[in-house]
Amino acid sequence: MSLLEVNNLDVTYGSGRGATLVVRGVSFALEAREVLALVGESGSGKTTVARAIVGLLNPSAGEILFDGTNLAARRSRLQRRDIQMVFQDPRSSLNPRMTVRALIAEAWRAHPDAAPDGPATEAIVSLLDQVGLPDSVLDRRPSQLSGGQCQRVSIARVLALRPRLIVCDEAVSALDVSVQAQILRLLVDLTATHNLSLLFITHDLGVVRQIADRVAVMHHGRVVEIAPTEQLFTAPTDDYSRELLSAALDIQL
Amino acid sequence: MNQIIVPAAPAESGRGGGSLEMRGIRVSVSTGGREVTLLDGVDLTIRQGLTTGLIGESGSGKSMLASTIIGLLPDGARVEGSIVFDGRELVGMTERRRRELRGRRIAMIFQDPLASLNPTQRIGRQVGELLRRGGMRGKNLTESVVELLTRAGVPEPRKRARAFPHQLSGGLRQRAMIAMALSGQPALLLADEATTALDVTVQGRILQLLRTLQREEGLSLLFVSHDLRVISHISDDLVVLYAGRVCESGPTREVLGMPLHPYTKALAESIPAVSSRSEISAPLAGTPASPANRPPGCAFHPRCPLATELCRVERPEPREIVPGRVTACHHAEKLLS
Question: Which residues is B177 bridged to in the sheet?
């Protein structure tokens, strides 16, 4: 049984005559500890699929199974805890008035069953350590941290809930390239140490080739091809996959 | 083909020219009673009809450098040094003379065309603005706008001229911005992250368009980006900026083939390849230094694998250690292979 199974997912924005079907019949599965990349251009529907999986919007048709259980429109607290999301811009997804300590502790307020039994500070310091931050950041606010440090805080906050699947929506795209590698390394290491799966949404095919086990290519709301990473890059079968791959630039030497 | 006439333009307007020499540029602003040097002794050359790529991460001052050339700096910014464009000194030029250059001899395009276009005006009206101000009206104006849109590769230019910005795709909006930039017959085009917000397939077409325009119109181009992949495809010369200072400069192929500054080397190595599988690169420690908080000595030393005591105390001066290759690293010789 797969950790996550998406079957014939449709998502519609708007209603009545103005309704637009933005995701059509999307199906894929994600295994435990697997990194699945979801690629496609803007408007392809990849972020919409991610939001439906996290439960931020309701699909109009199809089903999402987690651990074999259908995720209904109203999810249980544990189901919500199991699937977490990391966003592109850490600065706008962290409350600027809160300290790092408060930001992480806040996650436990929504999910008390994930809260530590012992002192919170100890647990927070341990989480910061797991994402490579010193305890000196405990009482800093997002504005006093760099972009890469903010993204580490977002990841620590998500890890505080001990999820089994993290959906990363362009999670390294806003970071400087010299910082990107640090966060990629961290995410990949976490899949092993924390028994995590990643659904990694990105437009950067170079990053995909480095970290993904499999890739799903989206175009106009559909998954047009899904294949193991090296197979997709060396022998894409769909016309659009081929176009996307050939448009991607490498450094020209 | 219609002749585009810009009556208000200075006599030297037209094709040709467009080279720029920047020497020892310092730009400082005071914030909170403290002076911050955003650009600190920058040298940069744009050769006529060629492209200089300016690469840097956030806070490196790359956008500030483009703004300095075009004269759009925040209030209270102080500029020292020299920028010679077509034989004329831009530093200290009166605002009136600068306005004659801006949008005409020197034009600029930005990352987000939606933010730079007026949402309430039709595309054609905005593309023709400079020509209107020059006194052009009626059919001449309409035809000139259509021709500008055509040169920028906008399909169905008559129809698009009547559209509002939100009715166009991101790629078409950027083409409209390019058409607008071309309306002043610039000799130098400054492109600030001009393809960053676009999808890869669209990005490739815009790069192709810029190259074609450059060839056909002899435009000189300054291409500012954080994306080394894009820059490597479009630029003849490369300037690498870190915390407001130039790390290294030289012909793009040579710089990327054999970087002579550890920062350039780390940047080039941190770009994941698409055409072959690579491991996640050994991450560079720390985060980019900012001009407001520049480390002493070499600004890169806290992150540099080659750093020694010398780097902590003494700022490396730019030096030419290979013909045409300038580096500001005390230990650049170690990178020669």
Answer: none
